[in-house]
Amino acid sequence: MAAVTLLEARGLTRHFGGLKAVDGVDFDLAEGEIHALIGPNGAGKTTFVSLLCGRVPVQAGTIRFAGADITRLPAHKRVGRGIAYTFQITQIFANLTVFDNVALAVQRRGGPLDADTRAALERVGLADRADQIAGTLSYGHQRVLEIAMGLALKPRLLILDEPTQGLANAEIDTFKALVRQVVPETTVLLIEHNMDVVMDLAERITVLNFGEVLATGTPAAIRANPAVQAAYLGG
Amino acid sequence: MTVATRIWAVHLAVLALLLAGGFLLPAYHQTNVAKVMVLATYAMGYNIAFGYTGLLSLGHALFFGAGLYGAGMLVQHAGVGAGPAALAGIVAGGLAAAVVGLLALRTQGVAFMIVTLMFAQAGYLTILYNTAWTRGDEGIVIAREARVLMGFDLSADLPRYFVGLGLFAAGLVLKLWLVRSPTGRVMVALRENEERSRMLGYDPYARKLAALVISGLYAGAAGAAYGLLFGYVGASLASTQYSILPLLWVLLGGAGTVLGPLVGALLMFYLIDYSSAFTTASLLVVGAALVLLVLFAPKGILGTLRDRWLKWLP
Ligand SMILES: Nc1ncnc2c1ncn2[C@@H]1O[C@H](COP(=O)(O)OP(=O)(O)O)[C@@H](O)[C@H]1O
Ligand SMILES: [Mg+2]
Questions:
Q1: At B162, which CATH number?
Q2: β-strands A83-86, A157-161: how paired?
Q3: What is the pLDDT of residues A13-29, one digit of tens each?
Q4: Does residue B106 sit in helix, strand or coil?
Q5: In this complex, do B185 and A94 lie within 8 Å of one another by their Cβ atoms?
Q6: This prediction's pTM
Q7: Predicted ipTM?
Q8: pLDDT at A235 (0 to 100)
Q9: Is residue B314 part of a domain?
Q10: Which protein residues have their CB within 5 A of the ion that is ligand 2?
């Protein structure tokens, strides 16, 4: 059975002044896959996924999601269609309780608020901290809370921007287990610098460099690709 | 006792105290507290925009003035009854907030403050110069015969007090329900982190507009009640001072607390009342109170209580 395409970007472009942050990118996501996006710092990864989730307006090109053109759809409506984004720089409601942080995600999609919020916290191991003020959590727990908010939206596509940055090894293992649990109901697009995590989780990898796609393929193919080795993996 | 029961118990107890005040207070204080309850309703509305949603408006006098003049001019020039005039005042407040919000909410922070201030100033000048309708600076004194609601004479102490209390009670219950609802949670989320809220799927513009319109409805209701209860509809009540006052009351009582506006308005009112008995510089006393506030309780009285002891206070 051929994989169903969930998201399809064509000629996606975003320049900042003279800087070609994202430059004519074609990109496909198969429904249910874990897809990693890698590339050196400043390659345009965050900008690219920001175009997908609507945080940054598209200058040229098109995005189709679940069969519909969403190129001009505002960010909050894309969330309604099932695209969730977790920020590279932790963005939580620091002055609200852990419970309220996740409840805000749960109530957006509807459903039993209290039960679903507790379940989402249970799943990431933050249940016993529900009443704590989010800003007083450790850095690692704040990252986990951010992921919990994304998951609580029950999205069709979850975009994770360097989720393991600054996490301890044990926390990374928990994270990997979490991501494996959510597929294939949720498709995962993962920006990640930790190559162990990438090779472990990803079914396909796309490499960005200077705003352009350098290569797309399975982990084995990417590892063997000479251009990728030269630009990023360092041989 | 669950938290929800405790919360409702506290707020209903405050309403019960105010109800008792209607029977126990001497006439002089009855008039004062009636006025405070109307102004506190205005401040509760301001708090919904500022304290909960994070919209620092300097133009609320326009919404208060819309209610005040909306109701006052209908009574004065068209002979409309107090009840329908009050309803029109409420609608006028909400409508003014919607128009201002549609434009001002395209800006943020300082720009939002300035745009709302300019709108209110334009409204104030419109009132000032349309003397044929508004009697300008002098204002309109509404005749006693026109201030009758369902057979009650609103210029008499007791009915005035209870209408003021009814307005305040409705405002309080509605606000308590709102801020504890999912909608209230989203308002606070916007105040705390707009970008995060947007990426959770909430439309910041639409949500802020809704909060501002609710705020405007409160201001309109308070403005209409003020004119009908105290019989005076004047331009000074729509001046910049009346945009700043609710901000001060809310800051004093505690921004983002349900009862803070009442505490702030009551305290400030009596501070000025008592100090003006022995000094003409009563504003200096207000200034001193605000300096003390900034130094010792920057989150206002109830905000500080909540931080220290009453974590559950909404
Ligand atoms: N809002 C912006 N304004 C100007 N330049 C930006 C902006 N956002 C990103 N850039 C630039 O675009 C390039 C790509 O950035 P980014 O997408 O964050 O890369 P990555 O996530 O791959 O590290 C960088 O050179 C960055 O400085
Ligand atoms: Mg990045």
A1: 1.10.3470
A2: parallel
A3: 999 999 999 999 999 99
A4: coil
A5: no
A6: 0.92
A7: 0.91
A8: 41
A9: no
A10: A 46, 88
